[in-house]
Target: AAA family ATPase
Amino acid sequence: MYFENIIGQVFAKRYITNALTKNMLNNAYIFEGIKGIGKMSFAKELANTLIGITPENSPDFIVIEKEDKSHRIKIEQIRNMKSGVYEKPISDYKIYIIKDAHLMSEEAQNAILKTIEEPPSYAIFIFITENLESLLPTIRSRCDIVRFTPLKREEIKLYLTDKYSLDDKSALVYSAFSGGSISRAEELMNDSDFREMREDIQNCISVISDRNRMKIEFLADGIEKYEKEIINLLDIMINYLRDIIIIKEKLDTDLITNIDRITFIENMSRKISCSQIASIIDIIEDTKEKLRGYCSFKMSIQVMFLNIYEVIK
Model:
């Protein structure tokens, strides 16, 4: 059985397994999906199946990626790759992985186009990308597109508990905030700022629920230190507020993100109405848009808390 070590990705497994079984592999694929959901691992497993040995130990497994200190995959890298494409492999296949293919310059994409239009029978090209639209239409039209989906919370939780021996509740929190990405969950595990942000946001919501205008206005001063992480901070706040709605509306508690703060969430659910929460979330989303538009950080946050007070008073 193929791809037993890959978490989730039922469609990708079925699609590529079917091609392997019927001996109908294409010469070019695009693996598309968010970061940290197994695209590269899947490509390595496929290479292992085709080459017969650990890919990293084979000269027939070639990875092209951006060089250190560079923000792009350059045309010179593609030209260097092309020079070896028509040298026959030691095994039955030659696998080329273009990692973070969305970082290829337009010149690099045009340079690889003729090769994937007329590839040697033994060559397989896999473009790994987080952004399908960043690839030229001419490249997309010549590849089979395999979409990788965000992983389920339970899948990430099991991975974290098995690999890191985390307790279930902590693993659930990291998986809930991961957006379906294992690498993001792992980053959060080691991010002390993330833990501090959650504490500060819990304090913000508690102060808001007490409806004291002066204290609410002072909240802006307390989060100035998070200017560079403000979008992440506001997303955490939105998650808390949505959790409160889940409790108020008696929805499935498996949907709760901050499962380790359930007592706090239940307490807040008795102090804020659903309509107030919905209005506060709208205010926060509007603030995020202003901040993305390069509005003044300090002014935007001050206005946000003033508007929240008007809703909650």
Summary: DSSP finds 14 helices and five strands in the chain. The two ends are 61 Å apart (CA to CA). The chain has two domains: 10-147, 191-312.
